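Next up, a chain.

===
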Amino acid sequence: MNAAGLEGLAAEAERIGPAPAEDGAEGGALAEGQGGPAAPVVDPMEANRTALCMVVALLREATAAPVLWNPPLRTLAEQLPDERLPALAEPWARVLTHYGVNLGDYGLDHPIAAAIITTGPVLWGVARSLSAELAARNAANGAKVDQAKAAA
């Protein structure tokens, strides 16, 4: 582009003027001494309570899903209705807040939240299945020991 072309672009830019600012300041920039839009301030205690309620609710719903459990588990759904979640989360939210943990800093796109949401129900199911298998094995071994004692 030659000098005349650049001068033409500059003249066009001057004619159009600066872009309007979203907050009403002139020239597309913030006025002096004016900050950008303030981020909402969320109490860490409230963020922790809300996040804990969400995690428990997700776990509750996952254990009641027929896709993951056949038949679905109803214990968590019966024992942990929405009304009880804040009371359950409150003491743990206090502990987390006391130690400076703010679960609000970890959004659903955070790797920790993604890991808990995606693997939590599966690992819960594995733990329950393993527990049932070990109980059955111990019961079978106990029956064998009882039979051996009876035969002796």
Q: What stands out?
A: Residues 44-151 form one domain. The two ends are 104 Å apart (CA to CA). The chain has five helices and no strands.
